[in-house]
Amino acid sequence: MEQAKSRVRNWIRNSITARMLIVGFLLVILLIPLQYVKSLISERSYRQKEVVQEINSKWGNNIILSGPILKVPYKTYTEERNFNEETKKYTTKTITNTKYAFVFPDVLDIDSNVDTKPLNRSIYKSVVYTADIKVKGNFPEINLKELDIKNEDIIWDKVSVLVKTSNLKGIRNTPKINMGNQSLAMTPRYDREYLNTIESEFIKEFSLEKNKVIPFSIDLKINGSELLEFIPIGKETTASMSSNWHSPSFDGKYLPEDGSREITSDGFSASWKVLQINRQFEQVFLKNIPNLTEFKFGTKLIIPVDEYQKSERTAKYGFMVIGLTLLVFLLIQLVSKIHIHPFQYVMIGLALVMFYTLLISISEHSSFLKAYIIAAISVLALIVLYSRAILSGFKFPILVGASLASLYGFIYVIIQLENYALLVGSIGLFIILGIVMFTSRKIDWGTN
Hints:
This is Cell envelope integrity protein CreD. The chain has eight helices and 16 strands. By secondary structure, the chain is an alpha+beta fold.
């Protein structure tokens, strides 16, 4: 029995296959703490999103602007027949109802200047903005005969103007709309049908303007975050946007016109032009205004890849880092005939896992680059000093340090890339495989 145990111990100690199996098993075991680290990064990232959403909700959320829109009331008539029991005859009564037509402008021009600034809460940061939006254009002369609405049925003294926005809370001025020579105050409506809508007072003597093109203008100052978008309700809609934000993403159904986009480190500018033929809805609606958000366009003020995203991308390479480092130690063990205990492999692997906890904790209080350098130097120093204790001389510890430093440098380059990350990563892994194959070619694999 003792002889059998001794043979097993000798096989484990001297067999290359046994050593490879043990290292492979330890690699799988080390994936458990690595997975906990990934969960920690996800948890911190989720917490960041919660705080950012809270900051944004108090400052002002995404903005989608639609308007101005003419709200034109008109009369409809229905007949009601009632049977009179006394006279034994039917009587007819005409009932008058009020309905609404919503008329979109012929020309709509939107000019917006978006001034961004950071807001901090504890260690978390969000980017919000204040948009100065100037809207002008003109409405067509009112003629609803094609919709079977007679001019005499229109209630001309009850015509008003609507502006719809997704963010009433963010409006920072008292808006007034200029209609011709009139300046009309606008107030919100407490009505589910007109949710997130401000409406003007009635346009005075509108009947005198009904056969004319009616110019309008309105200035809005709105606090928002992340998105600023418009709905092209004009028969011809033009929009321009300028900002001091350096990382825009042009979002929605329509892109800016060719040649109008200019993006620098100091900000961006862009302009759009959308014609009625480019979108699939008419200029007049009856009863209510449909949801037209599928036609929106504008800009998303994106935050460049943040620390948590970078840490998450770095952790995805954790298996490769741990696997290749343990492989380096295994090759050193096979070449030098130095015995490395499985416990020592575990300590090296845990040190490699600690890199990611250091990275995420330091990056919350500093830049990702500084956090990456500090975490990498700390882990490198720890592993090199530990290698010096278990490996003879300085040659192998220096080799381990150089290999690990090259690996960390390679991963940092990959996570900074976007379009070429896969290409550079594939080439790098190909080179690493070639080095391993070249290094292991002279190892005597005969010891089973």
